[in-house]
Give the backbone structure.
Amino acid sequence: MAEPQLSAQLLILYLQAFDTQPGVSLRYVDLDYRRVSEWLEEILATDSSTQYPLMMASHLYAQVADQQKHRIMLDFIYRKFQDDPNRRWSALAHATIVAKHRLKDLPLALKYANAIANGTHSKDVPSWAKQMPIFILEDLGELEAAKVLIGGLLESGTITDSHEINFLMKEIEAIAHAEKSASPLGK
């Protein structure tokens, strides 16, 4: 078709309606997620400006109670993030949260959070998204790495909001307190 946006919207409608056809009703968990991700990829190839396939992957198809299917959708989001990080960061931020809280896979969540922190350069990407690795590192018990990351952010001068600077300074104090509490000598 000559109109890529219209073509992409028609593909989206087809994919969304696929699970409910006359006489057939499929649950999302029963779909072949490799094929679903291929459809989502085709939609993005048809219209690279649309964010809807990423939203479908993270908010619709990644909601099933099947961790392997979660991972297929999250991997799709991560791969497609690489093509346009400054516009697709929010989908990967959601994937980070899904990896952390639903899959309980902190290394995967850290991989996604680091991709946002290191792969985006637009001022439109909020600082909280770029700071996600700090909190995942804390959850992993990598307190020194989290402190170094915070220190680097503060030294870089990229953070100018006084409230945010104050928050990060308090975070360094909290990490130092946690390290002291975890020390066998408590010092």
